[in-house]
Design brief:
Order of helices and strands: HH
Strand content: under 5%
Radius of gyration: 18 Å
Number of strands: 0
Distance between the termini: 31 Å
Helix content: over 70%
Shape: elongated
Length: about 70
């Protein structure tokens, strides 16, 4: 006979979501600071802007999924 699975409470899942989202936002803010220090129009600026857009999209997907 199988052991009953341990159910994770909503509060624990919510805390895990908040921690993960905080890390995503922290990464985005670091990338944004670097972007703001670069000169517009350079190759590095374009590369960093693409990275910022990627991180922002990741944060949006995380919020929309709710997990």
């Amino acid at each position: 006979m199988r052991k009953p699975g341990r159910k994770i409470g909503k509060k624990i899942r919510k805390n895990a979501f908040e921690d993960r989202f905080a890390l995503i936002v922290e990464d985005y803010n670091k990338a944004k600071e670097i972007l703001d220090s670069l000169i517009v129009g350079t190759a590095e600026y374009d590369k960093q802007k693409k990275e910022c857009n990627h991180l922002f999209a990741h944060a949006e997907r995380c919020i929309n999924s709710g997990t």
